[in-house]
Every structure is written in C-alpha cells, then in structure tokens.
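User: Show me a protein chain along with its predicted structure.
Assistant: Here is one chain, sequence first, then structure tokens.
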Amino acid sequence: MAVAALALLGAASWGTGDFLGGVAARRIHVLTVLVLSQAIGLGGAVVWLLASGDGVPGVGDLLPAVGAGACGAIGLAALYRGMAVGAMGIVAPISAASPVVPLAVDLGRGVSLSAAQWAGIAAVLDGIVLLAREPGAGRRTPLAAGVVLALVAALAFGLFIVGLDAAADGSVPWTIVTARGTSTALALVMALGASVSIRPPARLVPATAAVGVFDTTANVLVAFATTKGSAGIVAVLSALYPVVTIVLARVVLGERLDRPRRLGGVLALAGAAVVAAG
C-alpha cells in the first residue's frame, strides 16, 4: 500500500506540474520554462537535503542520479514542447508508455511478467496507435502534432525511473538533489546555447515556479517509492499522471478529443493499470 500511495501521489503531482508546464510553453520558450522550474525545484531539494542530514553517498550511487537528471530534463523539454504544439490529451497519455523501459530492465534482471501484464503492455501500445493517428488523411495517415515528442518523453522518463531506482538506495535526498542539479545545469546550457532568455514575463513567474514545485514533489515521492518496491511497478503507477493532465486540459482549456482518441487514451492508461495489478 505504501508503494502504491507514494507512486500515485507522485503521479498527481507530476500531472499538475506537466499541465502547468505545457500551458507555459504555449506562451514562452520551452527552455525558459525548463530552466526556471528546474532551478526552483533544485532550491527546494537542497533545503530538504540539508534538513535530512544525510551523508554524501558513494560515486556509484551518484552517477545513476546524474543520468536520471539528464534524462529528466530531456523528457520534460520534449513533453512541454509536445503539449505546446499538440493536444495535451494526445501527448500526455503517449508519454505514459515510459514503464516499458524499466519493465524491460526488470526482465533483464530475471523478473518475469504475468500474462495480464503482457496484455496490459499490448493495450498501452494499441492506445498509442489510436492516439497518434491523424484522422481523415487516408491510408498514409501522418502522426498527430506532438506525437514524436511524446515518444521521446516516454523513453526519457523510463530511463529517469531506472536511474532513480539505481541511486535512491544510497540516499533519496542526495539522489533528488543530484538529479535536479544535473537537469538544471543541462537546461541552462541548452538555453544559453540557443540564445534563449531565461527570464519569463512577470505574469508567468508564479505558474512556471509551480511547475518546479510540483515536479520536485513528484520526484521525491517516486524516489521513496522505488526504495520500497519494484521500479517497474512504481513506474507504471506513477505513469498514470496523464489522467490529471487530461482532466485539467478538459476543465481549464476545454480540450476535446474524438472518439477513437478517447478510446486510445483509455486503453493506454488502463493497460498501464493492468500491468501494475498483474
């Protein structure tokens, strides 16, 4: 129960932060959103680390956290940009395919999956196909806007979970600070390299700051969850965050999807739940 509760709370926090990040990325450059949100999250993580009193773990624990941070930055940039150019109800569920990566790692470690879990994976993939297709274009149907970016986000988020799992047993606070520091530094380098201003308009500062708060909270919850259970299961449960994003997009933005895409979203998310329950 503790593992499920932590992972699901992380999912709710991620979903809210991602919605705010997608909205902000429609108004300002995605790298501006990423730099500010990651920096604010880093500040909160450092305060938590100092309060915890944890000693510095070994290099073997910190290196996976560095990799997790880099993957997290890439995944968030792809997700926010995908939701800026496409429908959140399409991009968010596709990014939920991220559990395929840590589940593949679990398989490599000798952890077997049940028939129900394989069926759940099949449902996720079927859902992605329905979500990705642009209707009304005949047999040579192009992908909907944001789909490729959503797939990049899914891969990066899956690798992020793998990195967290490898590092969190040493020290959860140090894992989060290291990952967040890496993602902040990488986002800053990308912004400077692209000559993008890292100062958002004053009216968008609160929303952009909230992105960092929600994202860091989710990272902390998920990191704790990985210390108490299988990384594959934690990844699946935390990947239900699109439910929150989709609901917010519907309520706040009035976003609507056609019937096949609604079915695709249900398949993708229900498949993830079956994998967790299997």
